[in-house]
Each structure stands twice: as structure tokens, then as C-alpha cells.
């Protein structure tokens, strides 16, 4: 409730000279978020889902309702800082070679959050397997994918953009079929970025800033987040690397399960 209110207020004040159409998809929330939107933001179009349809499908529903030439996909745990929205829009409008532009993400404590990525390879995905991670065999591939040494204070062309804020061209977005709705939770932005990258370049715009709280959805339903994260990773591997790679990953994750259960139990006890 609070994060959504904060996000919508920031959009209202960040619009400036833009013609902005705001669409909120309520994914069967159990609090008073939808009622708050209707009461406090009459200019916002509200789509109510009867069940949790996943982020990708919700984004597609909003995109189908929108009329603008540009689409900004924005998570509800964000706040656009003054000037950020117009900076993003004007930059994309003046750079026809771009298929997407992403802002600088800042944590509430002021620390930058990485959203710049290299193309995701299978070696980097294997770093998720805990007993492989402890061997450091795939650490370099993971670090390269996450671009840990990227200067987040400097705007630049990048291979991929992921995260809670992404501005794209509507025509290009529709031409690739939008978000892949098979992804229930996570990996959907990695997949979308990969497909958009084939249509044009991507740009990280440090001058446009968005505060991102992060982790709120995961904390609210950790079981849902864990289950569908693994399902989404399997789907991504099958889609981009083939059935054989997906089966191999399944075997490794199954073997890794006792280690994961131990780590999760330890984390629960600490909390």
C-alpha cells in the first residue's frame, strides 16, 4: 500500500511537460491498495485481476490498454526522482538506434543498485547451484554477467538492462510478443531484454534516477517467490539453451536441495 502510493505520487510530480497515461494492475492484492488507487488517484486506470497472474501477464495487460508510443514498465516499490521521467523519455526519443533505456537505481540508503548486465550464459546460471558456487568454478562468469565493475555513475551503451524500471518503444515491444507470460516470477526482464537487444541498442542513463526498495514482494510470500523463481530459471534455460541444458540444471538443483534446505533453515533461525 505505502510503496504503491509513494510510486504513484512520484509519477504525478515527475510528469512535468509529458502526456502521461498511468495504468496500475492489481494482481489480486489482499490489502487496500486498489481502493487507495481509486480514491486518491482518479487519473489512474486500474485493472483488477481476480487471481495472481504473474508480473509478465500483468505487464502485458497494461501494455495492451496503453496508447502511448513509449511504455515505461515500473515496479510498485519504486519512486521516480524529479526530472527522471522526462530525462528518460527525451533521451529515447532522440536516439532512434535504441530499443530500451534504463535509469540509475538507488537503494533507500543511497547506495546504487546494479541493473546493467551482459548476456546471460549457462555458466553464470550454474553459479546458482550452491555446492558449485562454493567451488568458485563459475564465479567469474557470474561476476561478468552482473557487471560488478561497471561504473554506475557513468551513462553508457550496455548489452542488457534488467530491473524494476525500463522504458521501451511500444511498436518494438509488440513486435516481439511482449513479455513471455510463462515466467511467473523473475527472469522475465532478463528474457525481454535479450529479445529487445536484437532490435536495437540499450542504454543506461545515469542522469535519470529511481529509488528502488526491492525485495518487498519476496518478503511477503517467500514460498511463492522461491518456487516460481526456480520454475522461471528452468523455462529460461529451456528457451535459450535447449532441453538438454534444462535437464542438466534440474539434476544439479535436485542434488543441491539438501544444501539449500540447510541454508534456508539456518536463515530462518537467524531471523
Task: Report on the architecture of this protein.
There is one protein chain. The chain is α+β, with helices and mostly antiparallel strands. It has twelve helices and eleven strands. The strands form three sheets. Strands 3, 4, 5, 6, 8, 10 and 11 form a seven-stranded mixed sheet that branches. A two-stranded parallel ribbon has the order 1-2. A hairpin with a 5-residue loop joins strand 5 and strand 6 (112-113). Helix 11 (222-241) runs antiparallel to helix 12. The longest helix is centred in the C-terminal third of the chain and has 28 residues, at 243-270. It starts with a helix and ends with a helix.
Radius of gyration in whole Å, from Cα?
A: 19 Å
Mean pLDDT rating:
92
What order do the SSEs take from the amino end to the carboxyl end, as H and E?
Answer: HEHEHEEHEEEHHHEEEHHEHHH
Strand content range: 15-25%
Largest sheet: 7 strands, mixed
What is the helix content? 40-55%
Structural class: alpha+beta
| Gross geometry | globular
Low-confidence stretches: none
Distance N to C terminus: 24 Å
Number of strands: 11
Count helical runs. 12
